[in-house]
Amino acid sequence: MSIDDTRIEGIGITSRKVREKLIAELQRQGITDQQVLNALLTVPRHLFVSDALAHRAYENTSLPISYNQTISQPYIVALMTSSVLLDAGTLKKTLEIGTGSGYQTAILAQFSNRVYTLERIKGLQDSARQLLEQLHLKNIVYSHRDGVDGWAEEAPFDAILVTAAAWSNVMVETLKTQLKTGGRLVIPFGPPNNQQLHLITRKQQDAWEDRVIARVRFVPVLSGISMS
Ligand code: SAH
Question: Do the beta carbons of residue 161 and residue 97 sit within 8 Å?
Answer without folding.
Answer: yes
